[in-house]
Amino acid sequence: MSQPATDDLRASPRLTWARSALGDTNLQLQRASTDAGFRSYWRTVGVAPTRIVMDSPPDKEDVRPWLQVRDLLATAGVRVPQVLARDVDAGFLLLEDLGGPTVAQCIDDDNADAHVEAAIGQLIRLQSLPAPEGMPVFGEALLQRDAGLFEDWFIRRHLGIELDCADAERLQLVQRRLIGNALGQASVPVHRDFMPRNLMPVPDGPAVLDFQDMVLGPIAYDPVSLLRDAFLSWPEARVAGWLRRYHARAVEAALPVPALATFLRDADWCGVQRHLKILGIFARLHHRDGKPRYLADAPRFLAYLDAVVPKYGELDPLHELLERTLKPAFARVAA
After folding, report:
1. Do residue 143 and residue 271 come from a single domain?
2. What confidence tens digit (pLDDT) does each residue in 65-100 have?
3. 3-state secondary structure 178-243
């Protein structure tokens, strides 16, 4: 069933629940955001202050994992949305309204340092959280799955290339090295999409969103997700300065970061792993899910790879594959 059809079926119970939760039989709901999987978000109309109703159809996307992670983060002082009412069995939550624009929509050259500094503060709190028993691990199985996205969806499906044995071996060699680097890092709670799109610029924040997939994984992953973002790019010199600032604050917080030079290398390598994965995800969104707009950001990721991959001899096989095969094919497909 498509999401619009699901929304239609749940429109009446959603509105009835919202009116009951707020004690107002006249309020209405309007969609507040889209593209959230099976979850949908609705802003109240006709009541002040406005609130957000999260609708998570129980047969599609259980709301309990979201709530569990939210409550865990809140106990650590991470700014997350307040839950004002809940009906877990029905899949409805009433949340505070954090406003419209995300950090991604209001960050610019002049205010970026302040936004990044505030985001690092929230990230330090998240990473300092004692990992609860049973937290999923960002381990080899998940990393291998991420690696497969690039080959299956970006190379094979989007570029229409079937790698020969030599090129397949080159890619697999680099993927093994990237995975080995990630597995060799100290493990902390990892958001996995800690980026400006998932941060809301509230005074005591930013508030962190989309945290339900948090895992235990490599410490450099979230910092590079924030600073080499899927939808925003900054000059490499500025990114390097922010990474150094994160490292200094992580040391102050007694997080298990390595020496600065090692951390910067780990961040570079985590970035390469993540950028390959996201190219695969964007291609999958286009070809499987009918969402072509994401591929417009593919050149950003190729530029990230151009800036980082040539710095490391261990990544030369990927550099060769990109220059000789993948980038020319991408140019042909994009033409």
Report:
1. yes
2. 999 999 999 999 999 999 999 999 999 999 999 987
3. HHHHHHHCCEEEECCCCCHHHEECCCCCCEECCCCCCEEEECCHHHHHHHCCCCCCCCHHHHHHHH
